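Figure 3 (text version): structure tokens given as input.
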């Protein structure tokens, strides 16, 4: 762009067909257009994002309202997972998303791959896996396009172009030092399958801090996941989702070779223990409802409850004496994490802040005004 503008200016200055005053007017008009163009580019950048990690992509009216209220203009959409199948001795897709809605904004298809795949797969297997992932991504995109074409007939004329013009594929894997060679080999093969798309990868905080051990993935950009900082299975963990204090211990370097985007948690859960042994996680758990229900729960310390009688929560059968540790990130803590990220990391003007996840249960606990403020803190 810079070269094009300079060439146009050079032509205007040396043109024998324009008088001096006319040349000045043309140059000024060109500069004004350039300023407007660059301003437009900045306003259209996708910097506010949510993750969608459910099995069915179906946006409710409430979820669409959340996107509009927070001015979020990007979604990471989970397409499917890939896991190692011990019986067939190969990597197989798991839980391909069911498409029932069209994304209302820019989106990035996302594929989660277990580290077990890279522990067992040979390089020829990874060559085949890259081909299969391309095929399945294209399959989901065809389903989205079919819906988009139907929507275009009822007034949403931009829907088909939105589906056709996706630009990036995200691979999510918590690779290790032992699997990085296989994983990076796979990423290079996958890039060959998507030559016109940017390839991005999730980056755990330990991988960011200990890059000499984890290596640098061969991708265009990375999504730094600033949550799940400690082991939820440990009984004495305060909050396994994270805190600004723990985040501070990982952000010991400001630079990274790739463009960085950032993901922060707005989810919460209950961590269940029986006789000190970890039993599992309760999704969508609400600490206030536990405090109100004194028949079933007794708060023994802040955010830790002991069951007063046997009960069923979701698919979990819990017994008298079981302990539940409620975990979430308070708004003030989330604000501190954003400020720390802005202070410590060298981010670009179009780096995204992604909130995990687009779920009304979690969003309502913060409120859209609070999330707007968090986005704004990240952008300034």
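Below: residues designed for each position.
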């Amino acid at each position: 762009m810079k070269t094009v503008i300079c060439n146009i200016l050079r032509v205007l200055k040396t043109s024998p067909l324009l008088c001096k005053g006319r040349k000045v007017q043309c140059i000024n008009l060109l500069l004004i257009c350039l300023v407007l163009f660059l301003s437009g580019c900045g306003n259209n950048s996708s910097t506010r994002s949510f993750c969608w990690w459910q099995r069915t992509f179906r946006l409710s009216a409430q979820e669409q309202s959340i996107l509009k209220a927070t001015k979020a203009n990007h979604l990471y959409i989970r397409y499917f997972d890939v896991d190692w199948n011990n019986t067939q001795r190969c990597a197989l897709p798991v839980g391909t998303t069911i498409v029932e809605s069209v994304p209302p904004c820019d989106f990035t298809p996302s594929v989660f791959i277990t580290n077990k795949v890279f522990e067992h797969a040979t390089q020829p297997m990874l060559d085949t896996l890259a081909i299969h992932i391309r095929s399945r991504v294209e399959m989901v995109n065809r389903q989205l396009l079919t819906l988009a074409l139907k929507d275009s007939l009822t007034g949403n004329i931009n829907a088909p172009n939105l589906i056709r013009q996706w630009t990036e594929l995200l691979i999510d894997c918590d690779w290790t030092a032992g699997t990085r060679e296989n994983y990076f080999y796979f990423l290079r093969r996958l890039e060959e399958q998507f030559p016109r798309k940017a390839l991005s990868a999730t980056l755990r905080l330990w991988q960011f801090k200990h890059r000499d051990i984890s290596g640098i993935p061969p991708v265009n950009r990375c999504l730094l996941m600033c949550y799940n900082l400690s082991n939820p299975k440990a009984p004495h963990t305060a909050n396994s989702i994270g805190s600004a204090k723990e985040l501070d211990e990982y952000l010991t370097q400001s630079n990274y070779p790739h463009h960085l985007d950032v993901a922060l948690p707005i989810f919460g859960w209950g961590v269940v223990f029986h006789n000190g042994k970890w039993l599992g996680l309760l999704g969508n758990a609400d600490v206030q409802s536990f405090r109100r229900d004194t028949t079933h729960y007794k708060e023994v310390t802040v955010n830790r409850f002991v069951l007063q009688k046997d009960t069923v929560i979701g698919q979990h059968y819990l017994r008298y004496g079981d302990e539940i540790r409620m975990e979430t990130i308070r708004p003030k803590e989330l604000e501190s994490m954003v400020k720390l990220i802005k202070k410590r990391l060298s981010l670009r003007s179009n780096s995204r802040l992604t909130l995990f996840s687009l779920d009304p249960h979690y969003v309502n606990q913060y409120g859209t005004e609070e999330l707007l403020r968090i986005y704004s803190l990240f952008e300034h």
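Residues 48-267+330-379 form a domain with the TIM Barrel fold (CATH 3.20.20).
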